[in-house]
Amino acid sequence: MPYFDKKIIYSGMSSSFTTFLFFAISSLSDHFINPSTATLIGVVISTFVNMFFQFKILYPHGKKFSPALYYKYPIGHVIDISTTYLGCKFFFDRREKFIEYLPEKIRPHFNIIVRFIVMIIHFFLVAYPVRRYWIFT
Fold it and tell me: Model's pTM, two decimal places?
């Protein structure tokens, strides 16, 4: 039987919950502030909540608390926040170019669609590998 790490399921569920938190905060903030700033606020809040959950899921049970988490944890936050923010900002800054690829019916939801796509790519390429194989090892 091939090796399957069940922690990716738990980590994904945690990330999904905090992604919905991110969408809620960002979407509500869109009505009051710039979408890029709303994204930054949403990602900062959801990242802090998610990192707490990830610690519970990924940190080896019974392992003595490592002082290395004091520098790995903040660096992991910066990586998480930066990649999500910059990915979303890339599309927001080029809204007119990318919005034409969407069907007319869903164009009003451009910000949410961009955030969703960026978060999926971010989880598999950045967030999970950084958390699993660097921060919580």
Answer: 0.68
pLDDT, position 94: 93
Instruction: Give the amino acid at 12.
Output: G
* Amino acid at the residue 71: Y
Residue type present at position 50: N
CA-wise closest residue to 80 among 110, 109, 42: 42
Nearest CA to 128 among 89, 76, 82?
76
Q: Which residue pairs from 127-131 have beta carbons closer than 8 angstroms and sit at least 24 positions apart in sequence?
A: 127/15, 127/80, 128/8, 128/11, 128/12, 128/15, 130/76, 130/79, 130/80, 131/11, 131/51, 131/54, 131/58, 131/76
Run of H or E including 53? helix 35-58
**Token couple for 109:** 């939801």
In the DSSP assignment, the letter for residue 100 is: T
- 63-92, pLDDT tens digit by residue? 777 788 778 877 887 888 889 889 999 999
